[in-house]
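W.,

You were right to be curious about this one. When I first looked at the sequence I had no strong expectations either way, so I just let the prediction run and decided to look at it fresh. Below is the sequence, 216 residues in total, followed by the output.
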Amino acid sequence: MRLVLVGPPGAGKGTQAEFIAAHFDIPKISTGDIFRANVSGGTDLGRLAKKYMDAGDLVPDEVTNAMVRDRLAQDDAREGFLLDGFPRNVAQAGELNGILDELGLALSVVLDLEVEHAEVVKRLSGRRTCKKCGHVWHLQFDPPSTADVCDRCAGELYQRDDDKPATVRHRLDVYAAQTAPLIDFYRSSDQLVAIEAIGPVEDVTERAVAALTPYA
């Protein structure tokens, strides 16, 4: 199964990607992992990407696309993969189709994790991060025993800037602007399957596996 995972910030994509990839025995491929592997490995693409990153600039699509092409050409991805974080827009979706065509492969399905924006704001704005050990707590779902104090190391807890409600809403606006056309793109080709990503992690995983099994 060759799968793309999409969903808004806070939908639990990272968590679900791990479980889904393990269940179907396919490699989980994220753009973050690809970037780190290329940069730490000192590849030509990694060195090129690092120049942009060090300058605080976005890495151009053509560099990201080339990294994805190299990763999908590796042996472990021949029989299937889960892509998380790519494509992010319709242009990248077209590029992905071109890459797969070159490799003699085709995309099986796109799974959309649907979450209401109000739920995402609640999930992300409730997070508190430990300044000392980096552990993330949640005021509602996993609160520390003492307010603003980490149970693990007694470090001070704080709210990251990108977890503040106004920032979360802005991230959702950006996601909607970029990704709504992407979802329509895959829906028009009958490749989109959507599930509700609300409730316990295990329940969401169960829904995802049930929705994806026909494509395995």
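Here's what jumped out at me. The radius of gyration is 18 Å. And, maybe more interesting for your project: The mean pLDDT is 93.

Coffee later to discuss?

I.
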